[in-house]
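Lab manual, section 2.4: Encoding a predicted structure.

Procedure: take the sequence of the chain (122 residues), apply the prediction step described in section 2.3, and record the output as C-alpha cells. A sample record is shown.
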Amino acid sequence: MTARPHVFVYDGGCGLCRAFKDWLMETAAPGTFESLTFDDPRVPELLAGKSFGEIRESAHVITADGRVRSGHSAILLAISVRWWGRALAAVFGLPLFDPVMKWGYNWIAQNRYRLSCAAPGK
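Recorded output:
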C-alpha cells in the first residue's frame, strides 16, 4: 500500500510561491508531496472549514493523515524534507520563535506580488 502524499497548496500567481513549490517538488522524495494551486477545484474540499479568503491568504499543507498546517507552520513542515530543514524547523518551531516566524511569514505573504515581481493572476 502506498502512503498518501502531503498536499502543498499555494498561490500559482505568485513567482515566489511557485519557486518555493518547485524547490519543494525537486527536493522532496518522490511521492512525498503533491502540489495544488489555490484555484484547483479540489482545494475548498481539502481545506473544508476555511473561507475563500483564508485559503488565499497563505500556503497550506494537508498532511498525509489529514491535518492542516497553514502559513509559517506549513512552510516549516515543507522545509523539513531535508535534514537541514528538519533542524531549522525544530529550532524555528520553538514557542520562543513562533511570534517572529508568524510575523515574518505574514509580511512576506501580504507582499508576495511585490517581492516576486508577479502580478495577481499571472
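Check your result against the sample. Strands lie at 6-10, 33-37, 60-62, 68-70.
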